[in-house]
Design goal:
This protein is of the alpha/beta class and about 290 residues long. The protein contains eleven helices and eleven strands. The protein binds NADPH dihydro-nicotinamide-adenine-dinucleotide phosphate (NDP).
């Protein structure tokens, strides 16, 4: 079994992006700038924003955090997005989740200018991703793809099973995998309710799990030699664990991501890569 070391992949990409930003600064005399909008004071969001800031500083791009109060209205949120859309010094906008219940995330996500949509979450960018017409790819699925690439195995013709069908992970990931000519099955709560999760997992050459249920996937369900990518982040008794029972899964897997230290660290760096892609797109359009 080999560990898929997300921290190592993250460091390599950070160094590559740092060089790219140095070239941009030397050539354009400009520094790409990203803005993250955060609502309220959710501790998890603040920690994530802090790690983004550190990565941005390392790479050499500007990063600004804009906060709105927890009781802000959807109009307040949209007005701030509009202001940032119109601000030529801002190249990328990220909307931090969770948002309070008075905000409809799917509506506000579509307020973000398509060329500033850091996470690739607005409908235009999702559509372009399906058609293969954009380099702005949602960061978590992109991180999963980079982990799979690092194994050195081609995905062509492999049985890939994704557990979890969310808008931000499972669904976009299925599209990226199809592009690599994998045979993709996406499982969700309906699969579990039908009692068929284990049978799908048993034939997976590659298993990706993004559910949010600690240790849902047992090692004995996994095919010998499978590549296992665990996206889940759950906290039990103050300890971070994934959706896969790592102890038993490592006995079966040929490659497996640890949690923490797997998909997460690279996801943050890929957000910065999207920011640089957004900068380049805006430069082309100006
Ligand atoms: P969502 O809650 O949006 O989606 C969860 C998905 O899992 C849904 O499709 C749901 O099915 C499915 N599901 C829930 N329970 C089961 C079950 N028992 N069996 C099969 N499928 C099930 O979660 P996210 O996609 O946002 O996040 C998933 C996990 O990944 C979380 O732990 C989150 O913290 C983590 N995460 C990690 C990131 C990273 O960078 N490492 C980034 C983003 C998320 P249905 O659609 O039918 O409801």
């Amino acid at each position: 079994m080999q560990l898929l070391d997300g921290k190592k992949l993250a460091q390599e990409l950070k160094d590559q992006l740092k060089e790219e930003v140095e070239l941009i600064k030397a050539k354009d005399r400009k520094t790409p700038k990203l803005v993250n909008i955060i609502i309220g004071d959710d501790a998890g969001s603040c920690t994530y924003a802090n790690s983004q800031k550190k990565v941005a500083e390392y790479i050499g791009i500007k990063y600004e955090l804009k906060s709105l109060p927890a009781n802000c209205t959807q109009e307040d949120f949209c007005a701030l997005i509009q202001k940032l859309n119109n601000d030529k010094s801002v190249n990328g906008i990220m909307l931090h989740k969770p948002v309070p219940e008075q905000i409809d995330y799917s509506v506000v996500a579509n307020y973000v200018d398509t060329v500033k949509d850091l996470e690739g979450v607005n409908v235009t960018n999702i559509g372009k991703m399906i058609l293969g017409e954009t380099n702005i790819i949602p960061c978590t699925p992109a991180s999963v793809m980079e982990h799979l690439k690092s194994t050195g195995h081609s995905l062509r013709g492999l049985e890939v099973v994704i557990v979890g069908a969310s808008q931000i992970v499972g669904k976009p990931l299925s599209i990226l995998l199809l592009k690599e000519m994998a045979t993709v099955t996406v499982c969700h709560i309906g699969t579990s309710e039908a009692g068929r999760l284990e049978e799908h997992i048993a034939r997976a050459d590659v298993l990706v799990v993004a559910v949010g249920v600690p240790k849902l996937i047992k090692g004995e369900w996994i095919k010998d030699g499978a590549i296992v990518v665990d996206v889940g982040i759950n906290v039990i008794d103050g300890k971070v664990v994934g959706d896969v029972d790592f102890e038993t899964a490592q006995e079966k897997a040929s490659f497996i991501t640890p949690v923490p230290g797997g998909v997460g660290p690279l996801t943050v760096v890929l957000l910065m890569r999207n920011g640089i892609e957004a900068y380049k797109m805006q430069k082309e359009q100006s």
